[in-house]
Amino acid sequence: MNLQHLFKSILVVILAICLWIGFPAGVQAGETVLNVYFFHSETCPHCIRQRPLMESIDRYNNDIDVHFIEVNQDPKTWQKFRERYHINSGAVPRTFIGDKSFIGYSEGDGSLEYNSAYSGYIGYRNQIIQAIADAVGHEVSLQKAIEQPKFQFPWWVLGLPILYLLSFLPLKPWLKTASAKRYWFGGFAAMCIVSLFLIVHLTPDVAIETFARGLPFPLFVSTIALADGFNPCAFTVLIILLSLLTHTKSRRDMALVGGTFIITSAVMYFLFIMVMIGLGSVLLEQYGKLFILILGSGIAIAGIVNIKDYFWFKQGISLSLSESQQRKISQKAGQIVRSLRESTTSRMRFLTALGGTILLAIFVNIIELGCTAILPAIYMTALVNYCATNSGGVSMQCYSVWTALYAVIYVIPLLLILSNFIYSFESSRLTETQGRRLKLAGGLFMLFFGLVMIFRPGLLIVG
């Protein structure tokens, strides 16, 4: 064998080794790798459920390369794909396979359905797998499903408030004063909230998401709005106004002025929440997890402040109307009452009184935003997710309809107070004990949802 022939043989061997190294096992020369793009978010429960499927496809198919792109960490790539495929909605998960894109994820099987609102096919599991198989030209290999252990409800957590209740008997000799009883009752309420959160925390994500998805959205909105309506700030102002109106000795005047105040409050609250939604929807889409974390932390802190007011009323930081604010409101309410007394001889005086009532309601709703901004933030987070899922992204009609319902339900407690005053026609005021209880109830409600937003945001994706 001459030297030239030996050199050619060595070169052929080197090329063969290079080709063997260059192509992974299972991928033959001439074959191309299929690129699949999976856009997801860490705060999206559908994304979390779809991710194991995409990881299995990527791992067990050497000619399929799945690119995992978190939309909040790489917004530029996400925006490029949306522009390329003319997609207006920022909803995820979004899976791109060749010339097809799939929106959402469902573990159940379904037919190939195109959703024009989302500019993509519905993300049924079988359709995603089939689209990848068609694009790559063979069946998709998947990891065998691992049987998950059955969920056992943590019944022992319910024993915590029961044990606390039993502590009343040995502690009874020390619970004779009103202050001591208040501390014990506050501890019991806190134990109930802690137990509820422990149940949520110990329950698997799948069970939490299934429960949340099964909860009707109207029920969620009604619950949040009604809880928001039991607001010490709003109660205090309305009771001050109605108590002064009893001196007019006219149920008609009380109904007109009180009704005007409540309707104006509902309109102001509607506008306030709509502005909050407009800002919040942008922040949720751009910053997602960080925004929910910050919002949840703020709500939890506000809840702790309200719980503090139950034990140390208006001491230190408080989300209540200050004494100076209450004096200003009383002065404005007094002017309205004086105008009504003089309205018997002047129609203009009566119109002035109604105009003053509208201005008072606007003034009150502006200064009490610190009392009312917390629960609407919880509602806003759930509403943005709901409208994105059911209305093809940003939908002012979806926002407006649900927020109008929220505002109507919010003023129901105020309407009940007005009805009681008209019926009894007696001057009254919100006692400190009543204020403390409202603060405790509202604070525990805020603390629970704040912790949910921090640790279990999927629970807010209802309907």
TrEMBL record:
Keywords: Membrane, Transmembrane, Transmembrane helix. PROSITE patterns: GLUTAREDOXIN_2 (PS51354). Residues 38-100 form the Glutaredoxin domain. It holds the Pfam family Glutaredoxin. The keyword Transmembrane helix applies. The chain crosses the membrane at residues 153-171, 183-203, 215-242, 254-284, 290-307, 350-379, 399-423, 444-462. Gene3D superfamilies: Glutaredoxin. This is Glutaredoxin domain-containing protein. It comes from Floridaenema fluviatile BLCC-F154.
